[in-house]
Specification:
Layout: E1 3-4, E2 6-8, E3 11-13, E4 18-22, E5 30-35, H1 39-58, H2 61-77, H3 79-90, H4 94-115, E6 121-124, E7 130-138, E8 141-145, H5 153-164, E9 168-172, H6 178-190, E10 198-200, H7 205-213, E11 220-224, H8 227-240, E12 243-247, E13 252-256, H9 262-274, E14 284-290, H10 291-306, H11 326-341, E15 345-348, E16 351-352, E17 360-361, E18 364-369, E19 384-390, H12 393-401, E20 408-412, H13 416-425, E21 430-433, E22 453-454, H14 464-467, E23 468-476
Parallel strand pairs: 1-5, 8-9, 8-11, 9-10, 11-12, 13-14, 13-20, 14-19, 18-19, 20-21
Antiparallel strand pairs: 2-3, 4-5, 6-7, 7-23, 12-22, 15-18, 16-17
Helix pairs in contact: 1-7, 2-4, 3-4, 4-5, 9-10
The structure holds NADPH dihydro-nicotinamide-adenine-dinucleotide phosphate.
Length: about 475
């Protein structure tokens, strides 16, 4: 069985015991053995990133561009093989795995371009003979902590801007998906990333992640993951006055109005609720449906859900792969039971035993629910969606906003006035009209409000807010 090590200061080093990385579609398939580090490994990696920082911040924008561009090209060239590895490791379908790898490639190529588009301001002083320049500088050493559900795209959308704006990096990937992170590290090395500019330390959040967040040599932390971990990280960063960016969960509403075109609304809700096994922070978990179309919509959703093919992520006919692991599957099954105890009508949601032993679950629809139930307040992060009946637009909008989260919200309607009002009033970071709540572009801001996100937005040009800091220089010219 092949063994994979962490990358520290340009060297592949074993920082601790090796752990099996198992395929959730077939638990007898072990992908590889990955060495998990500890706090001492983080110390070495941070020292390497600090040592490499001055060289990287002063290197030409052309050199940064060339590295990111080469990584983007390699990801695209190897997208079939890496996408397959992603599906094997995380359980999303092969098409989704290849698509996500292509997205990572696009992200690297976008930020390659951004290396050449870093601009500042020149302003006249209010005093005579003084020039003012406002420029952006790197933050320094950035710690990146990533989740398992987008194991190549999320690392890409943190690594690429971090490097583009002149920072050096120590990354800790989710312990369920070290393989994709390792592939990105290998490609960075192959493409000529100088030693210490990018460091990868695999391992547990409670040891490696904790050490990275609380390390005094790390200037900023970008985290994507659960609300609980996000709050914990925010407390540590707050105490240390460390720059922090958190992307956390969602309980995203999709409103379906009486005038919705069901040939658009039903596929959008099936996609948003069940694709990627519902393991997306942007998933539509609350389908808020106006009374006049409620029964017709519920029947159409039930029928479409029943036609989804659940199976091995690598089987070309599979539409919904397995849940990522036993812990997440058990949590999903507990929510299905909770839905019953909250008097919802439950369709599907049972554990499935297929030929291969994996973590399979039938998609679940909860009917007859209301917005106060726990199933409609807490993020489930599985292939489960609720239908909630609304009296009219105002009622639907009020329920859409009645949540601790604020990542995405969608509406299906043909009425321009309602669509406009929804775009303006939804208390979220991203709004979709006649589109699934999940599925975003890579060149524009990504993030949310309320309990979903904290700190500057990710992606597109907005990423500069987090990965750089502003300097105002005054010079007497007299
Ligand atoms: P977790 O919060 O458990 O883990 C996220 C990352 O944080 C992992 O790398 C994890 O390591 C690490 N971590 C865990 N504990 C600590 C700690 N004490 N200090 C530092 N790092 C730590 O979330 P999941 O990976 O399980 O992802 C699922 C959750 O993430 C869902 O709630 C989902 O909504 C949210 N999410 C939000 C996204 C967004 O953009 N808003 C995108 C994707 C997911 P380890 O794996 O070793 O535990």
């Amino acid at each position: 069985m092949k063994k994979y090590d962490s990358l520290v200061g340009g060297e592949w080093v074993c920082l601790g015991d090796y752990h099996e990385n198992v395929n959730p579609s077939d638990v007898s398939d072990v992908i590889g053995l990955y060495s998990y580090g500890d706090a001492a490994g983080i110390d070495t990696a941070v020292a390497a990133a600090r040592a490499a920082q001055p060289g990287w911040r002063n290197i030409t924008p052309q050199a940064r561009h060339d590295l990111l561009d080469a990584v983007g090209n390699t990801l695209a060239k190897r997208s079939q093989e890496i996408g397959r590895m992603l599906s094997r490791e995380e359980g999303k379908t092969l098409a989704e795995g290849i698509g996500e790898t292509m997205r990572a490639s696009q992200v690297f190529k976008f930020f390659a371009g951004e290396c050449l588009r870093q601009v500042g301001d020149i302003q006249p002083s209010v005093r005579p003979d003084i020039d003012i320049e406002i420029t952006r500088e790197p933050v320094g050493v950035v710690g990146l902590i990533t989740p398992w559900n987008f194991p190549i795209a999320i690392p890409a959308w943190k690594i690429a801007p971090a490097l583009a704006y002149g920072n050096t990096v120590v990354m800790k990937p989710a312990d369920l998906t070290p393989g994709c992170a390792h592939v990105i590290a290998e490609i960075l090395v192959e493409c000529g990333c100088p030693a210490g500019v990018f460091n990868l330390v695999m391992g547990r959040g409670s040891t490696v992640g904790e050490a990275l967040v609380s390390h005094p040599g790390v200037d900023a932390i970008s985290f994507t993951g659960s609300v609980t971990t996000g709050h914990h990280i925010a407390e540590i960063c707050g105490r240390m006055l460390k720059k922090v960016q958190l992307e956390m969960g969602g309980k995203n509403p999709m409103v379906v109005m009486n005038d919705a075109d069901l040939s658009i609304a039903v596929p959008a809700c099936i996609n948003g609720t069940f694709f990627s096994t519902g393991q997306r922070c942007t998933a539509s978990s609350r389908l808020i449906v106006e009374a006049g179309i409620h029964d017709e919509f519920a029947a159409a959703m039930t029928k479409a859900m029943g036609q989804l093919k659940i199976g091995d992520a690598l089987d070309a006919s599979t539409q919904i792969g397995p849940v990522v692991d036993a812990k997440q599957l058990n949590s999903n099954l507990e929510y299905v039971e909770l839905a019953r105890s909250e008097a919802a009508q439950v369709i599907g949601g049972e554990r499935l035993e297929l030929t291969k032993k994996g973590f399979y679950q039938a998609p679940a629809l909860f009917l007859g629910t209301d917005n106060s139930m726990r199933i409609n307040r807490e993020e489930i992060f599985g292939p489960c969606g609720s239908i909630i009946k609304a009296e009219n637009f105002d009622h639907a909008l009020a329920m859409a906003n009645d949540t601790d989260f604020g990542l995405t919200a969608g509406i299906c309607t043909q009425n321009l006035k309602m669509a406009r009002e929804f775009k303006r009033s939804a208390e979220v970071g991203m709004v979709m009209v006649n589109l699934p709540t999940a599925g975003v572009d890579y060149h524009v801001a990504f993030g949310g409000r309320k309990g979903s996100s904290y700190g500057p937005r990710e992606q597109g040009r907005y990423a500069a807010e987090f990965y750089s800091t502003v300097k105002t220089s005054y010079q007497f010219a007299g």
